[in-house]
Amino acid sequence: MIALLRALHAERLKLRSTLALWLCVLAPLVVVLFGTLIVWSNPVILPNKAASVVRWQAFVQSVMVTWSMMMLPLFITLEAALLTELDHGNHQWKHLLALPLPRKVHYLTKLFMLVALVLFATLILCVLIPAAGLLLTLTANPLLSNAPPWGFLFGHALANVAAAMLMLALQLFIAIRWRSFSLTMATGITASMIAIFIPKSGLFGELFPWAMPAMAISGTSDQLTLVVALGLIGFCVVGALSALDFSRREQH
Q: What does DSSP assign to residue 251?
């Protein structure tokens, strides 16, 4: 445990030379601004005759769907690539693996750091959504005048993160297993584009890892339960197998 904590601290220091932390702010900010502009320019999106809490829920869900369907898969792809690019590009794996630490510690460090980045970005999103609702109320749209539904907001956010865990583990495995930054990005972008159309086609979107976060927000209650369970179980299974594969490989 001490070795893992030290490795996490070293990884956090390395992140200072990348855009990883800035992306945790910029990605949710772009999504919230986009959702705010849509509602501001077209207020009828929110149900005018519904209760304030219903309008708030509609606003929260519209932003969360955009985040989970369009931004989150790309965010995870880029963050996984940035986390591993420094070690691949400078051949730091040889130095790291020569340290008196279990090999799996290095993999788990990357895995936990990527989870932390996703949680941080989600927290930023949960802060920006109510701020955007307040801005709408003060400027052009009085439909969000009451307090935000914090339970609804954080419940959706946690479900979204849980459903994304399998995708996260797969993207990190790809980013560590192959040195090519372009391959990691191409895989994530392609899968993200496929994920946009799979739920609409009815082809079991709840089983496609890159579509699971969106299904957690816009799917039925049964689909929500399924994607959360698959996300968490898949994260544990893929993470354990990936750590085992990393430990047994001779070259990185």
A: -
The total of structural domains in the chain comes to: 1
Torsion, Cα 244 246 250 252, to 10 degrees, reads 170
Reported pTM: 0.85
Q: Do residues 124 and 25 make contact, with C-beta atoms less than 8 angstroms apart?
A: yes
Of the two residues 207 and 156, the one the predictor is more confident about is 156
Instruction: Give the number of other Cβ atoms within 10 Å of residue 225's Cβ.
Output: 14
DSSP letter (8 states) at residue 165:
H
**Domain encompassing residue 210:** 2-248
What's the CA gap between 228 and 252, in Å, rounded? 32
The fraction of the chain above a pLDDT of 70, given in percent, is 74
pLDDT tens, residue by residue, 155-174: 999 999 999 999 999 999 99
Closest CA to 84 of 109, 57, 61: 109
What is the tens place of the pLDDT at every residue in 47-75?
665 566 777 888 888 899 999 988 999 99
State residue 76's pLDDT score. 95
Q: Residues 155, 144, 43, 131: what is their CA dihedral angle, to the nearest 10 degrees?
A: -70
Residues with Cβ within 8 Å of residue 28, at least 6 apart in sequence:
67, 71, 121, 122, 124, 125, 128
Both structure tokens of 145: 């005048």
Contact 215, 223 (CB under 8 A): yes
What is the distance between the alpha carbons of residues 134 and 149, in angstroms, rounded to a whole number?
13
Q: Which helix (H) or strand (E) is 62 found in, with range?
A: helix 52-66
Neighbours of 1 (CB within 10 A): 6
